[in-house]
Q: What sequence folds into this?
């Protein structure tokens, strides 16, 4: 007795069809799974056996051979449990075989025949739509993820019995109802708002520019100046996610198993803040069972690295390639996957170990060698990839005690959204969303300068000894400043402000 049903596997963020072939023959009772499967797939035989029996169906006595094709692609996890169970029941003619072959099946099976939630449903459904597999069964707990993918008949069920009864025309099931995406800023508290940040006008301005254009930021200042608070408030002024960006983020979070099951899709830009003890694998992804790292979970959002020099240098240096390319490729033995990593890097640091080098109000206790050792933890190539370097000074008592109202994040966010919408319209045909993503050819097209601005940039290039990358990043930032001013052309004052955000490394990095 032979049956074939469809399921799906994942390679990174890309789904592919897996043909589950079940053969039941006469012989000594045994259960063999082939097709380059991992331990979780092999252990599925006990879940499947118990799930079938406890659902009220007969389990075959004989030689059961399961092949997951293509056989040269590694299969991981419990996602194939339901497909294998349906293959066995189909081979035993417990279900209509021709009807069962029209569907794909995803889900982990419990010992009582219930379907449990799995990771990676969203990218699989997107792949299924592209591959014309339009009818799919998924666990009920994954229903919200499926509700944003149109053009598919997705049935979210609780148990194996429901699938079998539906295939045998005993009950009627309805596909998951599609929802309309709406981006909204969900806040669990009212603390991370710029209206509570006293003073720091220059820092707020720099962060507004960074949010509008997706630019990387380095904050340098003494302890207690407010760097961490500014970073936490930064998420409250980020622009709205487009549906395309939301799907990209949700695919990554779905594969990583951290997608909010209630919403089923990301509605706010991610804000990730890993501890400085995070390993390279935790930061960039990979591992035995390859998973997205923090830089991919921050895709289309923010990666905040507090006290950047405290991170191991070899860990921080892994950011250089994804900061430039917007993707990270994980290559291991028999495995190569690519994850998106187009994030905004927001980093903070003290200027020295004690934190008061260059301060006007405190005396630095560090020796010159200690300062050099501390600052040399950050390489020039990494700093060159950061668009905005800003100094955060401590606030005065008068500023702290001032009862006047500071500008709330909601007002800043309105300006950021206007500037980002200008960019979305400008780059509509180039498949990018922000000024920070401009290629050299787009910089040449959209960042033309008049003679006075060109002379100012040339003087800064020679005085600050900038690299070609630094030159291009100044142009990108100035383009964002112009967008915030609703200016079609980049003016001299826009260039001047952008240059001001590139000079701090010359003060601190010796």
A:
């Amino acid at each position: 007795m032979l049956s074939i049903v469809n399921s799906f596997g994942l390679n990174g963020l890309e789904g592919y069809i897996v043909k589950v072939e079940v053969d039941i023959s006469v012989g000594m009772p045994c259960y063999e799974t082939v097709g380059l499967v991992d331990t979780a797939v092999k252990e599925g035989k006990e879940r499947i056996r118990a799930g079938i029996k406890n659902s009220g169906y007969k389990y075959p006595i004989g030689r059961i051979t399961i092949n997951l094709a293509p056989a040269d692609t590694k299969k991981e996890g419990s996602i194939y449990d339901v497909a294998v169970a349906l293959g066995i029941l189909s081979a035993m003619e417990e279900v209509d075989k021709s009807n069962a072959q029209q569907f794909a099946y995803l889900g982990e099976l419990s010992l009582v025949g219930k379907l449990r939630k799995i990771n990676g449903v969203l990218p699989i459904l997107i792949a299924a739509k592209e591959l014309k597999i339009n009818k799919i069964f998924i666990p009920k707990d994954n229903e919200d993820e499926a509700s944003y993918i149109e053009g598919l008949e997705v049935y979210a069920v609780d148990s194996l019995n429901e699938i079998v009864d539906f295939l045998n025309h005993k009950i009627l099931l309805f596909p998951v109802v599609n929802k309309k995406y709406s981006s909204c800023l969900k806040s669990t508290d009212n603390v991370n708002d710029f209206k509570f940040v006293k003073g720091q006008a220059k820092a707020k301005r720099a962060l507004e520019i960074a949010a509008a254009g997706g630019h990387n930021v380095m904050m340098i200042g003494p302890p207690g100046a407010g760097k961490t608070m500014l970073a936490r408030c930064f998420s409250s002024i980020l622009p709205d996610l487009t549906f395309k960006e939301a799907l990209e983020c949700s695919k990554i979070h779905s594969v990583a198993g951290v997608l909010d099951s209630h919403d089923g899709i990301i509605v706010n830009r991610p804000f990730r803040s890993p501890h400085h003890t995070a390993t390279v694998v935790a930061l960039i992804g990979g591992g035995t069972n390859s998973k997205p790292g923090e830089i991919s979970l921050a895709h289309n959002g923010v990666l905040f690295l507090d006290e950047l020099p405290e991170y191991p240098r070899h860990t921080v240096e892994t950011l250089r390639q994804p900061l430039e390319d917007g993707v990270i490729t994980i290559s291991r033995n028999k495995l190569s996957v690519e994850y998106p990593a187009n994030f905004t890097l927001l980093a903070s640091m003290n200027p020295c170990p004690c934190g008061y080098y260059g301060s006007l109000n405190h005396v630095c206790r560090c020796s010159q060698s200690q300062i050099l050792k501390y600052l040399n933890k950050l390489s020039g190539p990494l700093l060159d990839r950061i668009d905005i370097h800003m100094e955060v000074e401590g606030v005065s008592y008068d500023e702290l005690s001032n009862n006047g109202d500071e500008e709330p994040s909601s007002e800043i966010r309105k300006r950021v959204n206007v500037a980002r919408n200008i960019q979305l319209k400008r780059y509509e045909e180039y498949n990018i969303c922000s000024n920070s993503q401009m290629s050299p050819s787009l910089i040449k097209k959209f960042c033309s300068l008049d003679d006075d601005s060109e002379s100012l940039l040339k003087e800064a290039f020679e005085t600050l000894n900038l690299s070609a990358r630094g030159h291009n990043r100044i142009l990108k930032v100035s383009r964002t400043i112009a967008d915030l001013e609703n200016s079609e052309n980049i003016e001299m004052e826009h260039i001047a402000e952008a240059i001001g955000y590139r000079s701090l490394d010359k003060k601190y990095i010796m």
Remarks:
- The CA atoms of residues 265 and 373 lie 44 Å apart.
- The first strand starts at residue 2 and ends at 11.
- The chain has a mean pLDDT of 91.
- Residues 2-167 form a domain with the Ribosomal Protein S5; domain 2 fold (CATH 3.30.230.10).
